[in-house]
């Protein structure tokens, strides 16, 4: 009974959009960190 009330509340369109945005933000942060690491190595040399 509880499951039947929860399932209609799931909005798959909004959920997938949030997951895509979250993935883009994660990739951007990883690229930013890699760029910071690479620029630090160049300054030391």
Keyword list:
0% strand, mainly alpha, 45 residues, rod-shaped, membrane
Please provide a written account of the structure:
By secondary structure, this protein is mainly alpha-helical. The chain has one domain (about 1-45). Helix content is about 85%, strand content about 0%. It is rod-shaped, with a radius of gyration of 20 Å.
Sum up the overall morphology in one term: rod-shaped
The overall strand count is: 0
* Content-based structural category: mainly alpha
In N-to-C order, the SSE pattern is: HH
Describe the SSE topology:
Layout: H1 2-6, H2 12-44
In summary, what is this structure?
The protein is mostly helical.
